Amino acid sequence: MPPFATPPVPPMHVGFDDRSGGMSPSGPVLVRRMSDLRGLYADQAAWTAALESDDVVYEVASSPVPELEGELPQSITTILPGRVGGEFHMTKGHMHTRPRGEIYLGLSGLGGLLLFDGERPQWIEMRPGSIGYIPPHWAHRSVNVGDEPYRFLAVYPGDSGHDYGWVAEHGMGHRVFHGSGGPELRPFTFPAG
Ligand code: S6P
Ligand code: ZN
């Protein structure tokens, strides 16, 4: 897997492939399968059943721009469509370790950005061309609410850091389920059963 570039990072053009979501030139690529997502979905029995095929749930392709202070790394996340116990495929979700904002740009598919500051859950619908703004101190999780891959570009300060423990401890305020009239936001519950 290609590593991040070493500073000083030169100005660069970064292309991306519509079909794969890959970046060129490429930095590291992260693949999260169902087995990497223990404790993420509310319905643990449904998650265990999904382990049999252990499908890829999402991939994060990075450009070579490193996660270092002063740099602006970019990544493209592709969440494949699917549900576990009625709950849509989603990212793990994290809080930035330092108070740093982030910008998402919807590229394809239908998704949503779930934000939580520990008290107030917020939901931003994302479609191609949508810009989602994540202020500092808001944990964020992305959800694919459609039938196609949902893909978005993220741009964030290089010294943001990723705190997954905060989400494990506080939850995300809401969970997003398939409903007859579209995505249904329900109060967050920690995994059971
Ligand atoms: C990084 C940015 C995204 C996510 C990616 C995967 O700050 O928010 O690149 O890392 O969407 O989500 P997660 O929660 O598994 O890191
Ligand atoms: Zn982030």
UniProtKB/TrEMBL annotation:
Pathway: Carbohydrate degradation; glycolysis; D-glyceraldehyde 3-phosphate and glycerone phosphate from D-glucose: step 2/4. Gene3D superfamilies: Jelly Rolls. SUPFAM superfamilies: RmlC-like cupins. It holds the Pfam family GPI. GO terms for molecular function: isomerase activity. The keyword Isomerase applies. Keywords: Gluconeogenesis, Glycolysis, Isomerase. Its EC number is 5.3.1.9. Residues 1-11 have a biased composition (Pro residues). Residues 1-22 are annotated as: Disordered. It comes from the Bacteria. The keyword Isomerase applies. It catalyses: alpha-D-glucose 6-phosphate = beta-D-fructose 6-phosphate. Belongs to the archaeal-type GPI family. This is glucose-6-phosphate isomerase.
